Amino acid sequence: MFQSINPATGAPGDAIRELTADEVEERIARAASAWHEWRTTDLGTRAALLEAIAEQFDAHAHALAEIATREMGKTLKSALAEVQKCAGGLRYYAQNGPAMLADIDVPLASGRARQQWLPIGPVLAVMPWNFPYWQVVRFLAPTIMAGNVGLLKHASLTQGCAAAIEEMVIAGGAPAGLFQNLAIRSSAVQAVIEDPRIAAVTLTGSEEAGARVAETAGRVLKKVVLELGGSDPFIVMPSADLDKAVAAAVTARIQNAGQSCICGKRMIVHADIHDAFLDRFTAAMAAVKVGDPMDAANDIGPLSSDEQRDTVLGQLAQFQAAGAKLVGGEPLPGKGAYMTPGVLTHVPPDHPVAQEEVFGPVAMVFAVADIDAAIALANDVPFGLGSSVWTNDPAEQDRFARDIEAGMTAINQVLASSPEVAFGGIKRSGHGRELGPWGLHEFMNLKTVMIA
Predict the structure, then answer these.
(1) pTM, whole model, 2 decimals?
(2) Which residues are within 8 A (CB) of 311 and not within 5 positions of it... i.e. 6 or more apart?
(3) Which residues are known catalytic residues?
């Protein structure tokens, strides 16, 4: 049984029954059967279904948002924004997906060739709790448009969100088996991946989970897309608008109570403006309103669980033991997994804890002498997901875009995913891409047809 716990109150929520092995088998068989039908549907039919599912997300936006807030603690206003983003992502593929799947004719010296995109089968998605709807839609929308079918293994914390997504798909008119929620534990994932009817796997989660999934998929030679952790640099140079950079840095660290893979976690600031940045940033972080996530007056709610908060607090203790100075970053008394935003300075960059991802509302702030030092420090972690740089110098912008080791770089803005562009990382942040035409094509067969 999956038992949700409201991290804002500690009160138990809905309980969802775990599937038996026989029920998992029934769902996989249903998915395989559905794929044999869905793979031959025309692109207009697929687009119409995506639009209908988007309408369901719109119609039930408030109810969906409340489920997410109760299950993992994000503010209701941010949960509503996430649901709306899902509807937009579904419509993006409904409107643009058919053109992305058009055949490509290639003239040859003798005859011609046609390159065509074909679906490959049921795709298993292993998804996290931090963006419980958007992470799933990033896989679901291209899966439907591609002519594949989907199976979801969601996080234990957000089984209510998982069930609600399946309800939206069914209410949109999807055929039986096109998308199904698998209420299973992580220990049951290996057997699903190994099932010959499963064609591919996509995972968003921890480095450890990604390694396990990749190992299993590798043994059975199945395609994998992995979006793992990040410790993104947020670099501020002297030419930047300092007020905008400070405001964006706060947004980066408190978004989703700091539980976002792609928001800046390490503030790397040029020495000439370091003190001014630190003073303003520390004051702004201290002014963040922490409280009931259902109250629109609050900026952040609790972390996703007491366990997650304790993990972050344990990391902060390690930072301090290594000589770092901490302002804020304290647990709040009473019920709920609340903590105040924190700012770490004097962090030894080569200490093991500085190489880890801090998944909470805490920022590290470093001073660097020049652009070379900024890039070196930005790259001095095992991760390479995203990055944000703040400079109005075109030459610096080009240098950062070229030399920061990451899958994404945002210039003078907070990094965020968007349906139109590729999302993904390098190094130990994973491989493969979601979103845009690249995410649509990841789990498709680009077939070459030779024509005399």
Answers:
(1) 0.97
(2) 359, 360
(3) 227, 261
